[in-house]
Amino acid sequence: MSSPERNRTTPLKKKNRHTHTASLPEFWFTKDPKSHPLKNAVLKMRLHALSNSASASETEPESESDSQARPPQRLSSAARSCPDFTARLSDELLMNIFSKLQNSQLVSNTLVCKRWCRLNGKLVRSVKILEWDFIESGRVIFRFPNLIDVDIVQACVKSCRNSGILLSNKLVSVHLDSARVSGRGFLKKGDFLDPQVIDRGVRALAEGCGNLRRVVLINVSEEGLNYVAEECETLQEMELHNCDDFALKGVSGCKNLQILRLIGCVDGFYESLISDIGLTILAQGCRRLVKLELVGCEGSYDGIKAIGQCCFMLEGGWLAALSYCGNLKTLKLQSFKSIDASPGPDEHLGSCPTLEELHLKKGQLRDKQGARALFLVCQAVRELVFEDCWGLDDSTFAATSICRSIRFLSLEGCSLLTTEGLESIILSWKHLTRLRVVSCNNIKDSDITPELATLFSVLKELKWRPDSLSLLASGLAGTGVGRNGGRSFRL
């Protein structure tokens, strides 16, 4: 082909290329617009970006002087070939896409650009802050405006982040250096930020994140907790480390608080005093508590009584805490409607090895699950007393078979328990030496078997008055009371 022919065909090819590029988006969108809308949108933006770059290069040619004066830009191959296809997507659409990703991917997404960093920060709901400057500078509020769960414990401890020593337990973790280790513990009073400094940070946090649902604080005063109570009306859960009785005045202002965990004294870390005074203050304000956990506190009967009288919404789960009472000798439950509505799995209940006596008086034992959990925790008891317990039938009493160290059993006013139910359990107790059965009307003398009679003969102490009606009949024999024409009494 000659040279003039080549000149005539070259513009034709260029024209066809431009025509094909311009008609490609219409082809994709008119064929099936409902099949892949997101894929079509991304393709359209890509083609539009390529066409704009091509037209700009053709309509605005760069002069030779400008190209020589401008320093060359060093762009990566990915940056030259991949423009920002997400620039035309709205913030709402991008956030919807990011919300479908795993939390581990959100961290890498923040490194793409400032916009992605800002949008991913809005999706973060829970943070554990390690540096106090992040709070004091306000960056935590700017970076994560929609927080609902904040933990600032480690940020309030003056620890060496570069240390290779990490001391931790179930409650707190801190970095240590060799200079901090001493005979009195790992942390001293001066290793924490001043309460005034912490109060300022807590105030800024509460004012910037008013939708907080859970906070974990340490060494904060009443003033700082007042800020939380005023600004965070939706706060439902709080964990408080290293505070005193009077700081709980601020906690009592959180009217919607439902879960509270107080950590007073932790060996080697910090020492604080939470006594009956603080528990009484707490009970007067936080009446909607459904769960209260006390760790390292010195509250006694008066404080616990105030909590029980004022916090009517406290729910189950307390049986699992009995295993932490290392010196408990006697447990008495009186006038209870239920034992524990949600005791949890057996492996989490534990047991009280030092417990010797269990007394249940004027309570309801209809909840067989709670009763079984109680006997499982108290399986080491030696004395078991039931008095006027409604719902103590054969199946509920059978749960006491796990208590194999019983030496004394007392039953009074338990009208549902039968002789057969009693016999099936006490015959398995090899250490039983004392038995007391009074006013249990379903236990009949006529139902006593030879095996049960043999057991009675070897007991050191036996008080057997199960059927009050038969006892009354035998006592009135020969008096004429109850017969036609006999004596009658009006009480």
Automatic annotation (TrEMBL):
Basic residues bias (residue ranges): 11-20
Biased composition (Polar residues): 68-79
Domain of life: Eukaryota
Biological processes annotated in GO: SCF-dependent proteasomal ubiquitin-dependent protein catabolic process
Entries under Pfam families matching the protein: F-box-like
SMART domains: LRR_CC
Location of region: Disordered: 1-34, 52-79
Any one Gene Ontology cellular component term annotated for this protein: SCF ubiquitin ligase complex
Start and end residues of each F-box domain: 91-119
Name this polypeptide is given: F-box protein At5g51370-like
Species whose genome carries this gene: Coffea arabica
Name of the gene encoding the protein in the UniProt record: LOC113731746
